[in-house]
Amino acid sequence: MANNTTHTTEYRVLARVLLVLMFLTFLTISVTSYHLAAFGVTVALLIAGTKGFLVLTYFMHLKYESLLLRILVSMVFVLYAVIILITFIDYAYR
Amino acid sequence: MDQTKQEPYVSYLEHKGKYTGIRSWIFTLDHKRIGLLYMYAIMVLFFVGAIMGLLMRIELLKPGETIMKPQTYNGLFTVHGIIMIFMVVIPGLSVVFGNFFLPILIGAKDVAFPKLNRFSWWVYIAGCILAILSQFLKNGPPDTGWSFYAPYSTTTGTNVIMATFAAFVLGFSSILTGLNFIVTIHQMRAPGMKFMNMPLFSWAIYATAWTQLLATPIVGITLLMLIAERLFGIGFFNPNLGGDPVLFQHLFWIYSHPAVYIMILPALGVITEIIPTFCQKKIYGYKAIAFSSLAIAGVGFLVWGHHMFTSGMSNQARWFFSLLTFLVAVPSAIKVFNWLATMYKGSIDLKPPFLYALSFIFLFTIGGTTGLLLGSVATNVQVHDTAFVVAHFHYIIFGGMGFAFFGAIHYWLPKMYGRMYNFKRATIAWAIIFVGFNLLYFPQFILGIEGVPRRYFDYLPQFQPLEVISSVGGFILITGLIMMVYNLVQGARKGEIAPANPWHGSTLEWQIPSPPSLENFDEAPVVKSNPYDYE
């Protein structure tokens, strides 16, 4: 049910998360200069997934939400991961 | 709070708000009025799409050119598909009856975000206008089919960009509605109403809303990629530019197969409401039906590849998708068996809503079982892209969602307008629609098995008898539809005043006056038991 309490995240924490996000963006661009072949997509997805996790957890306050809501959001991640995995079954064996 | 002063009852239709006249509708925040606005738009668009379908059937009355050129036929089936899929059946039951009845069924005054709800309606209308404009602008209507398959859609000179952008805009409306419904169900339930006390239509809308929220962004970005490819020559899908056309099909069907469940899940919910009411019996297998909605939504996300068995996918992917497709039949069958078990020894009352529910089961079962032929790789290859697929699809979507929509409107019209329609006329219209529907689509199963391709303007002379039967069915069907709509409009405007609970239903909407007041309930209802408590 509803979690009506409010939470304030310290600016220091938000600033750190922002720095990490900027670093990960830089990393996304940098890894394209390495020839990782089929793993290029995997690395890009892992970095993007980590960024999404940080945004949801800190900027969207998921950290302070109920367990049910966190499970529901986690299942969305799992669903997208499964969809991507299934798509790559085709690409891997074609 | 002073409880002695009771506000006089005023229905939502008579309520005087900030605005009057047409503005009281365009700027309304009332979920019931927004539901009606969607319904009026969808009914108009449905008849436009149906007339296009009828024109195609006239063209196919005899081999060769009958009333239109081949390119006109290409445009017509594309526009028919775009209107029917993106503007009628995807929003369909969810936005009309979900908007109107979801808050009432869970004991709420409105949806969680009324302004977002109104915004979703405006976005929907904007998308519809864009889609309709794309048919009339200089380069002519898109001729790709509603699926916009690349690489043809990246090269054709017709108005593909505007049509795909319209679908993108319509998708936003769908996402926002889904989000609104999820929050409404989580946060707005009446005191005491746990998830396991919710009416099953609410469960169906809940499962649908998740699918809307999670699947629609995928097609949104895919259509933007298509637009980017056309405008800037980026090689996403066109092999000449280094792209992969099968990638388009993957991305398109990752959305568009779950979209079938966006269409059909609320329909399954409607039937689950109608059956216990007209059998005056507690629903059999409440939990199984509730969880089967979630299972259909969940597994339905993973079966898209069966649309692509002949597109050059790997063999491993084919058998994997085939297996998952067979799995999705299980929760669908759970619902059908539970409906039948509910009817067993019930006090069955063959009123029009129940007739539509019965015909839904019949037609949906034909659609579902022929779907298994398409889920099996070997038979799929035989009938892929033939009239068989057209028949299967229409049995699921029209025989399923369409008949459920008609059942829903016959079921809830007395609550929505406070008036009753003519039963005899409704029953005759149902019979005509049922006969016309089967005459129209069943021959297409046979034509498909015999190898007649879909989306073809012409055919070999030996197929004419079945094509003629199909076209005659089209005329019968449209006659029944006109009769049904006439009866409903007459009923809503001039019908007898309906009692608050004409069907002796047990869910919350039947416990309040007809039509409901602006805020639905004078006091928040307290729910303590299963919604289908007939014993």
Describe the structure in your own words.
The complex is a heterodimer of chains A (94) and B (535). Chain A has 94 residues and is mainly α. Chain A has one domain. In chain A, 73% of the residues lie in helices and 0% in strands. Chain A has 3 helices and no strands. In chain A, helix 1 packs antiparallel against helix 2 (39-59). In chain A, 2% of the residues are buried. The mean pLDDT of chain A is 88. Chain B has one domain: Cytochrome C Oxidase, Chain A (Up-down Bundle). Chain B has a two-stranded antiparallel ribbon with strand order 1-2. In chain B, 53% of the residues are buried. The model of chain B has no long low-confidence stretch (mean pLDDT 94). The chains are: A mainly alpha (94), B mainly alpha (535). The interface between A and B is medium-sized, with 15 and 18 residues.
Question: How are the secondary structure elements laid out?
Answer:
The complex is a heterodimer of chains A (94) and B (535).
Chain A (H helix, E strand, L loop, with lengths): L10 H21 L7 H21 L7 H27 L1
Helix pairs in contact in A: 1-2
Chain B lengths: L22 H4 L4 H29 L10 H20 L2 H14 L8 H23 L15 H4 L4 H28 L12 H33 L12 H35 L6 H15 L14 H29 L8 H24 L1 H7 L3 H31 L1 E2 L2 H27 L14 H31 L1 E2 L38
Antiparallel strand pairs in B: 1-2
Helix pairs in contact in B: 2-3, 2-4, 2-5, 2-16, 3-5, 4-7, 4-8, 4-9, 4-14, 5-7, 7-8, 8-9, 8-10, 9-10, 9-11, 9-12, 9-14, 10-11, 11-12, 12-14, 12-15, 14-15, 15-16
CATH topology of chain B: Cytochrome C Oxidase, Chain A
Q: Tell me the total number of β-strands of chain B.
A: 2
Q: In DSSP terms, counting alpha (H) and pi (I) runs of 4 or more, how many helices of chain A? A: 3
> What is the approximate shape of chain B?
globular
Strand content of chain A: under 5%
Q: Between the first and last Cα atoms of chain A, what is the distance in angstroms?
A: 46 Å
Q: What distance lies between the first and last C-alpha atoms of chain B, to the nearest angstrom?
A: 37 Å
Using the 3D structure, state the CATH architecture of chain B: Up-down Bundle
